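Continued from yesterday's entry.
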Amino acid sequence: MERQRDNRKVMNIKRTRLLKKYKYKTEAKENLDHLIEEPKQMVSAKTQRLSRYRKRQNMYYQNKLFRTDCKKFYSLLRQPNPNVKNAPGKEEVENF
């Protein structure tokens, strides 16, 4: 019972800090849900932006490498891809 009270007390402290930080006067549940959802969406947007940047950076690197040193570019393409998960076995490939 005491542990539940402590948890509620901690949650109330966190709630009041969030409300003070974002200058909300009322403690409506919609406001709290909005406060929680907004940072999640910001992190998601930054993650997607970073992945697009990395893909573009890789593309520019490969284009430059192709223009300057084709042999190195093709050897880079022949390297095994470590991102492949659950590659089919030899029997499955033969059956296919």
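--- second protein ---
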Amino acid sequence: MRAKYFNEKPRKEPTEISELLGTLIENAAVGVDVRHGELVSEWEIVAPADWVTFGSPVGIRSGTLLVEVADGTAASVLKYQIDDLKQAIVERFGDRVVTHVRIKVVR
């Protein structure tokens, strides 16, 4: 003889996958600043000429913009122009988007 199990709880209706994915995406995007992506995509418009010529933006994390350069000479030139870059970013996106700039030589 087999035991029969009876569940009196009503069954949940299935959730549409689009609703589930929408919720996951919304939760994952909390705290993301779209200005970070805009800065990277509009680099040639926003950044001063030397930064466009020698540097390539990688992204922003915790207010620090990472810019890659090809060699140490470019890094030296740009190191003295960090304030100019930060000012250009403030004029376009407002303050607090970038608080620090880190230059990385890529070999």
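The CA atoms of residues 83 and 101 lie 9 Å apart. The radius of gyration is 24 Å. Will compare against the first tomorrow.
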